Input
Amino acid sequence: MKKLIGVFVCLTLVFIVAACGSSPKVAEPPAGTESYYVRADGNDRNAGTSEDAPFKTLTRAIEVASKTSVKKITVIGTLVEEVSTENAATSLWRKNWDDPNPAEILITGKPNATDDEKAVLTSQRDHVLIIHIALAIRLENIEISGKKGSNNNSAVYIVGGELTLAQGAKITNNIGSGVVVSFGGLLIMRDNSEISNNEARVGGGIVLQNNEGSGYRLKRNCTAILLNNTLVTNNRAAYGGGIVMSGSELVMMDNVIVSNNTASDWGGGILTDGEESKVVSKITLRGSAAIINNSAQVGGGIFLQDQLTLFDSSRITGNTASTGGGGVFMTGEAEVFEGNDNVNWESIIKDNNAPRGSDLLDAT
Output
């Protein structure tokens, strides 16, 4: 498994270097301004404070919003752009994942947009959205889709920043991982958001990578918190169809589902790449979290080389492996913990299918 996650290390911090040229000066908007606006036929020299005078690029809107008191951006229609936050202020960083008043920029489409005004972000370059260190962004009522090109890249690349996918947010139908989280970044999925139908070599839906030896001093490990009826579904990869983890943490709760993801080799639902990092990856399932109907050659539900903690009402079921470990395949230093007295793993990891170890195959 060595160097599987390393394929993403080539996504270097070149994105942090400021682009050539200069941006228009940032000024505080008029009193009463509630949102900046972005539309493909706009102009980045506009004030951006009304639908009649929108910005042309989301990159410019994020830069302005990060430096003024207005933290909402409304996207109208489809934007074809590799959106970068490299010129944004970098003081917007939540205190913790469940901070009730996080310092973040909201990027949203109109909740009831007509077809021609539906908010869609796409790109023909390596990424659609790059979120840099110490910047927090929340997406609502918007779709990131249609990225083409290399399947070694991702639609969204979080370089130490933070992303919340909330109501109406989807990352779908991209070539490359849906989201790569690196350099201590944070991904939160909540409120029926979705990562689906993406295709990559490693980690079709989500990649959480530790980036040890990168030269950047990590203040925290990469983390993904999935809650409130979110979906990671129908993604495909050679390794880790749904999610890949290296030196990172994943928490799933409140009816979150990882389902119908496919890996041609290892880890249909989730793959933890234990050999790639000295930091142990940790998966926690609670509150009706489910890993269901995923498939792989080995480890249909989870290919586990690190730690898995199970709480009652979570379930790993209906997964398939063509060789072994239909529910969970354990290898390396893998451990399964029962998080409370009311649970044993056999009540959660059940009704899976494989020639060897239908539910759990322990090769540690």
